[in-house]
Task: inverse folding
């Protein structure tokens, strides 16, 4: 008797195998991306929320910031996030701008509304308004040489900022610095690098 030739192999198993292979590679890529993000945020940076209005107009209350934590040394002009227990009631991180680093001499002059470092008045296009005397007896750290390993910080919203002018904070040991604020991540309308 004449035997029927075997039916050609169906494409179905090949498609299933291809789908499984694609799924495997996509899952592997997703896992690698997640591992990369977790390691990046754990080892290199952090995400911190702004609490308050002391950095207006540069930053606003509840802006979400990406920080550079590892391998960072504070430099004049950087926006940094720090934490110093006992300075404020809450345990929230403090966001300020570095005005001077160790060895530099800072002079705050309320009569002219200026800040000078090593005798040179700073050009500060980022401040919110002209600084006025707050008539606050704690705001008396106005003429100081910053100790090595420390920084002098101020908010961009000078008239509404507790910062290194306040003797309760004063110059800040660099060990209190959590990192440099690189960019605003949220809200999307404020997204971008921090100057």
Result:
């Amino acid at each position: 008797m004449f035997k029927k030739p075997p039916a050609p192999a169906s494409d179905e198993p090949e498609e299933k195998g291809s789908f499984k292979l694609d799924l495997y590679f996509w899952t592997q890529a997703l896992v690698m991306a997640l591992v990369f993000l977790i390691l990046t945020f754990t080892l290199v940076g952090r995400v911190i929320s702004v609490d308050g209005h002391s950095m207006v107009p540069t930053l606003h209350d509840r802006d979400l910031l990406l920080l550079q934590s590892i391998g960072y040394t504070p430099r004049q002009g950087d926006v940094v996030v720090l934490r110093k227990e006992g300075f404020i009631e809450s345990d929230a991180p403090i966001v300020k701008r570095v005005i001077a680093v160790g060895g530099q001499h800072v002079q705050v002059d309320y009569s002219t509304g200026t800040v000078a470092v090593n005798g040179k008045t700073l050009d500060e296009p980022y401040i919110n308004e002209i600084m006025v005397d707050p008539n606050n007896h704690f705001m008396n750290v106005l003429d100081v040489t910053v100790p090595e390993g420390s920084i002098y910080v101020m908010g961009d919203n000078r008239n509404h900022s507790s910062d290194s002018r306040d003797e309760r904070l004063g110059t800040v040991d660099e060990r209190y610095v959590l990192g440099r604020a690189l960019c605003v991540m949220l809200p999307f309308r404020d997204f971008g690098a921090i100057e």
